[in-house]
Amino acid sequence: MLYLKDLSYHPPATPSPILKTLNLELMPQQLGLVIGPSGSGKSTLLEILAGLAEQTSGSIFWRDQELTSEHLQQLGGLVFQFPERHFCGSTILEELRLGHPELGSERVNEALREVGLVNLPLNQAPQDLSGGQQRRLALAVQLIRQPNMLMLDEPTAGLDWSMRRQLVSLLAKLKSHWTLLIVTHDAGDLLEIADRCWSLKHGELQAIEPAALKKKVPQTQSVIPTKKVS
Ligand SMILES: Nc1ncnc2c1ncn2[C@@H]1O[C@H](COP(=O)(O)OP(=O)(O)OP(=O)(O)O)[C@@H](O)[C@H]1O
Ligand SMILES: [Mg+2]
């Protein structure tokens, strides 16, 4: 379980704090969605939770263990906004093994299977994949490290309708193995797979009931399979 207690972030250069006494709880195998406008502090929050920046005050716990930035780097996998812009490997295999040359083909195949990218030649260049496949590869790059929590910054940005639906349905599936925290300015079809929701405005986090938001969003075709009535 991820637990934030009074987390604040106020770099010396800014007149007011970017994140103001945030409190949040996210259970394993839950998908948490933080919705906020541009500049509200979403990416900053993920950078802190991924151990790339350190909070000014407050604490971050996983179960009952308080976490340092080093712990957070181990525990979390962060998929940046437009992750395909950061690909460095010249092939899919190279991209997956960056920083982990020791990983065997079993782990590589497992990560690709998790994101539905099987049957692709491993020597294909990441740049030659479709936009949706590139997003899946970026997820696999994090999953291969087997983090406890997966964090995504605007995962559906720039995708067309059908790629977005495929990604939302993949995230719904990943939820059964990982804790997911997603930040976005536009909840859209991510709402239907969210277990917990918060709004972030001017660095202030407030819990919202996902069901209350769902009513405001126009109905789209559900990606969650409906249970058969026997
Ligand atoms: N290290 C820093 N020093 C000073 N200001 C910062 C720093 N990091 C972020 N900011 C400021 O903090 C605010 C929040 O930025 P952040 O990138 O987290 O917002 P965001 O919600 O992700 O926005 P967007 O939707 O546009 O990506 C912005 O006003 C930004 O300029
Ligand atoms: Mg951002």
3D architecture notes:
The structure is a single chain. The chain has helices at residues 42-49, 69-75, 92-97, 105-114, 131-143, 161-174, 210-214; strands at 2-9, 19-26, 31-35, 57-62, 65-66, 76-79, 149-153, 179-184, 196-201, 204-208. The strands form two sheets. It has a six-stranded mixed beta sheet, sandwiched between helices. The chain has a four-stranded antiparallel beta sheet with strand order 2-1-4-5, covered by helices on one side. It has a single domain, classed as Rossmann fold (3-Layer(aba) Sandwich). It is 27% helix and 24% strand. It starts with a strand and ends in a 16-residue tail after the last helix. Helix 5 runs parallel beside helix 6 (161-174). A hairpin with a 2-residue loop joins strand 4 and strand 5. With 230 residues, the protein is α/β, with parallel strands linked by helices. Bound molecules: adenosine-5'-triphosphate (ATP) and magnesium ion. Adenosine-5'-triphosphate (ATP) is lined by residues 11, 13-14, 18, 36, 38-44, 185.
Task: Give descriptors for this structure.
230 residues; alpha/beta; Rossmann fold; 6-stranded mixed sheet; 7 helices; 24% strand; disordered C terminus; binds magnesium ion
C-alpha geometry: globular
Could you please say which CATH topology applies here? Answer: Rossmann fold
* SSE order: EEEHEEHEHHHEHEEEH
Bound molecules: adenosine-5'-triphosphate, magnesium ion
Quick check: average pLDDT? 92
* Largest sheet report: 6 strands, mixed
Just name the CATH architecture: 3-Layer(aba) Sandwich
**Strands of the biggest beta sheet: in what spatial order?**
6-7-8-3-9-10
Strand content: 15-25%
User: Number of DSSP helices?
Assistant: 7
Radius of gyration: 18 Å
